[in-house]
Write a structure and sequence with these properties.
It is a single chain. The chain is built from 6 helices and no strands. It is about 40% helix and about 0% strand. It is mainly α.
Length: about 160
């Protein structure tokens, strides 16, 4: 049994289509392939859940029934167990939001709230004033946060 130690250190986001679905296809869909209960043949089917309700709790792998079952070895049964790497990948994918496509931040979304607006300008100004540096806020790509990044952010907001 694997202890819950899946904090992600990877820079790359997990891709459902090329990394998670192949695990399901090779180890799970022979039983969970559409004959009632949980169907793991596609992202949409997975997110519908099964007889036990939702099996994925986005951003919380430890509370997700899917991860609990594969981590404990309860699923898949017998000799078709998942590797530690596969279980870890599922945990990382869930913790990243269990998205159908890898997360890609919006250019200019400095505060990472899913929109680019005046709040991003405020966040960027605070970073500049406190001499903080975050690569995602360096919109000009020059290695420093300054007025050029603010101008670039305003242009993004204005659609220019």
């Amino acid at each position: 049994i694997i202890v819950d130690n899946y904090s992600s250190t990877s820079v790359e986001s997990v891709d459902y289509s090329s990394q998670i679905q192949p695990i399901f296809n090779s180890r799970c869909t022979s039983c969970h392939g559409g004959s009632g209960g949980l169907n793991l043949t596609s992202y949409n089917n997975l997110m519908l859940g099964g007889h036990s309700g939702d099996v994925v709790i986005s951003y919380d792998h430890a509370s997700s029934l899917l991860w609990q079952y594969v981590n404990s070895g309860y699923m898949p049964p017998s000799t078709n167990d998942l590797t530690d790497t596969q279980v870890g990948l599922i945990a990382q994918w869930i913790d990243e939001g269990a998205l159908p496509e890898p997360y890609e931040p919006l250019p200019g979304d400095v505060n990472d709230d899913g929109t680019v607006n005046i709040l991003d300008i405020v966040q960027l100004a605070n970073m500049i004033l406190s001499n903080e540096y975050e690569e995602s806020a360096d919109l000009s790509g020059d290695g420093v946060l300054n007025i050029l990044d603010v101008v670039q952010l305003i242009n993004i907001i204005l659609g220019g």
